Amino acid sequence: MPVTVLLVDDEPLVRAGLRAVLEAQPDIEVVGEAADGAAVIPLVRQLRPDVVAMDVRMPLMDGIEATRAVLRTVAEPPKILVVTTFEDDEYVYEALRAGADGFLLKRARPAEIVHAVRLVAEGESLLFPASVRRLAVRYGDGARPAPTTPAHARLTEREAEVLRLMARGLSNAEIAARLVVGAETVKSHVSAVLAKLGARDRTQAVIAAYESGFMESG
């Protein structure tokens, strides 16, 4: 089954460019478009996309509010990939904290766009781990602590080790190889980490790890 994508951006040329890049792939299908975040929820319910590629800045409802709305109101929400002009934008960080699964630069090369959609759809690796770290260091200053932090989550020693490897961007298979355990064991550890942190996915878990001081910021 192809990965289905909903494109949300107020610039028609951006949507057209993303559609052209994604639909050139046999395993990706663009199922719809919207010009503002306010239209996302009804389209998500109607089209059931696997991934929403969504601009972070839009006139009526931006990508941050649209992300919150989707996760709050849709029973089985899609993965959300924020599309942005600037990598170090605080809007991007707020969208990630709101529940977005990753972000993509509008100037990215076609291969990078395709890779980002596939990676976010799979959900077994962190997209751009170094950039997530920089955003957390720059904007996660502790004034807005994560709802549940690793310091209070009672992670086991092995779960803490898995979280550190997740923060470095390792996939489940790479973590399994590093720890010399089976892939299913790693999946169980990852699930336990997310549950204890109250995190939707790896991105939110890693943000919580940096904001709490669990991960070194340097």
Automatic annotation (TrEMBL):
Which organism's genome codes for this protein? Streptomyces corchorusii (Streptomyces chibaensis)
Residue ranges constituting the Response regulatory domain according to the UniProt record? 4-121
| SMART domains associated with the record | HTH_LUXR, REC
Q: Which GO terms describe its biological process?
A: phosphorelay signal transduction system; regulation of DNA-templated transcription
Instruction: Provide this UniProt record's keywords sorted from A to Z.
Output: DNA-binding, Phosphoprotein, Transcription, Transcription regulation
* Residue numbers carrying 4-aspartylphosphate: D55
List the SUPFAM superfamilies hit by this protein, alphabetically. C-terminal effector domain of the bipartite response regulators (SSF46894), CheY-like (SSF52172)
Q: What is an example of a Pfam family matching this protein?
A: GerE
Recorded protein name is: LuxR family transcriptional regulator
